[in-house]
Automatic annotation (TrEMBL), chain C:
Residues of the full protein shown: 303 to 349 of 465
Coiled coil (residue ranges): none
This protein's name: CCR4-NOT transcription complex subunit 2
Domain of life: Eukaryota
Recorded family membership: Belongs to the CNOT2/3/5 family.
Protein species of origin: Amphibalanus amphitrite
Taxonomic classification: Eukaryota, Metazoa, Ecdysozoa, Arthropoda, Crustacea
Amino acid sequence: FDDPPGLQEKTEFLLREWVQLYHAPSSGRESTKAFSQIVYQMNMQGILKTDDLITRFFRHATQMCVDMCYRTLNDQAAMTPTMVRNKCFRTLDAFVRLIALLVKHSGESPNAVSKINLLNKVLGIVTGVLLQDHEIRKTEFQQLPYHRIFIMLLLELNAPDPVLEAINFQVLTAFCNVLHILRPEKAPAFAYAWLDIVSHRVFIGRMLAVTPQHKGWGPYAQLLIDLFNFLSPFLRNAELAKPITILYRGCLRVLLVLLHDFPEFLCDYHYNFCDVIPPNCIQMRNLVLSAFPRNLPPPDPFAGKLQVDMIPEIRQAPMIQTNYASLIQPPSFKNELDTYLNTRTPVTFVTDLRSTLQASAEPGCRYNIQLMNALVLYVGTEAIAAIQAKGLQPNKQTITHSSHMDIFQSLAVDTDTEGRYLFLNAIANQLRYPNSHTNYFLHLILYLFAEANTPAIQEQITRVLLERLIVNRPHPWGLLITFIELIKNPTFDFWSHEFVHCAPEIEKLFDSVARSCA
Amino acid sequence: PLGRVPMTKEHDYQYQMLQAAFYHMPHPSDSERLRSYLPRNPYPTPPYYPQVPPPGSDSIEFFLKLSVETLFFIFYYMEGTKAQYLAAKALKKQSWRFHTKYMMWFQRHEEPKVITDEFEQGTYVYFDFEKWSQRKKEGFKFEYKFLE
Amino acid sequence: QGSDLTTLGLNLKSPENQYLTFGGAWAETPCRAQDIDFYVPREYLTN
């Protein structure tokens, strides 16, 4: 609105001029000569006079670039996809270079504020044009121009350059903000391009390896959570049509790279990720839970006579980046929980647990999964602290007869199949590499098996473990250790249970899993 | 035992938009600088052809095994990439030197006749990328200030 | 059963960091040396 007269024409003239200058052999190293010329012309046109004018200029320029791309994409007569792309990128890459140079040279170095303000402004404009386009064109929307602008600007601003290095974390933060605004739930037609940017080797490297003190880990974790949130309803329903499968496989690839190169990142954020990964995405969740710190390689789970309690790291609490205690809502419930944990009263707290955890009557969505996960981890960590406060370590003796165990046994006995499945999953999600949580929760799930008052509970415990074991690798160390203990330790008398022999193929399955574990 | 969750209208809309985008997937080249001289053009070769590069093919050791002509092909046709950088390193290790004034690679053909602080003069071979072959240059003055 | 994650085109046995040659979420193979943009000396841009 209220554009000064002639702004559109001036913008078009300057953009054309710049594209010519950018591609001319005389543009100079990194287009510096061309840039001096265009800045002079922009000054002559009064564009650089105020922030507002610069913003309006970029809005028109972005729109012109996008419109040019749509014309080229829709006029594919006699042009191969490569030719179409070359034509579009010829203008887009020039436009990106102009943005990068204006960002780099705006304000006096090392004054980062004006540079980052301009970058945020331009990214905001491109985002706004994208969302409007996405809204208007709907299934005719094309990701190409926006993807190219974002990815090439990201690469330009991550070039080895002292001025850019000085503002790199703010640049990355600006991109994370934009990518969060453009998360797949908000711009599903941009989802593939979005993941292409998030999974780009330069972006992963900068966010997870180069940025000091792991400052990039939190924002990057948020982007993965955005992806899991989008995929969740489709994966939960196993809606694996090709468009979803491609995105799912892409997600697996990224997680594999993270497992291989940044396992500590997956360790720290496993809780957040498992809170949003659908419970039936067993292999993807195993991938996250299999990560272990590279300086703490777990002992071979299949080596006979492994004494878990003798592993030194088993006493150390793992890093968890989430304040899961604050996820226990409402605050009144958290207060009652703490009161019970400290005083084991009122007894009604335990008997009311199930109703507190229920979210709806809808089968399959009856329980608040996030609350269940947070409750189990919180009570477990409180139990560990209480045991260690007595100078002891969690084992089958020290974990019993406590307010913590009251809660766990009530969740095992009082909930229905759905509720108990989520409860047991919350426990199994802590069976990871050797640490105090793995240690406590493996003793807990085995204790619940031994103390179960019905075979149904024992069967369900077995199911929860087994469904995590029969999927393709990788498998978390704590899961393997737990199952090996269950099938080998005579205390549990595992092989005598009827459900183990309920059908020939199940019996065969147990045999093969037992053999692979043995 | 969780079963399905009811899909909302929002989920249906999201799926429709994702499905439309599925037909405009990004190409790998969309996140690379324009390759004017050797763009990616995937071609369905018979499955028994190696479909991926041999392991270690992006290491200097691999490049050192390549012929000089191959290194020059990589240098001149894959500009601005890691391959060009590795080809240049491999050429230097085989005592080729890049002359920044002529933008060409030279190699001593024999001990130079004249050596001063500014230049060496003698017979060199250079790689002529128009004729795509090595040619001799008698009495060439290789000025150090143009040594990249 | 999930999928065989060793068939997604990543060289998981390699001790090298995979992200340096990661071709992205859709890539069936790692990047080749000629796929990776590199800041070479300006003089190398002979074209």
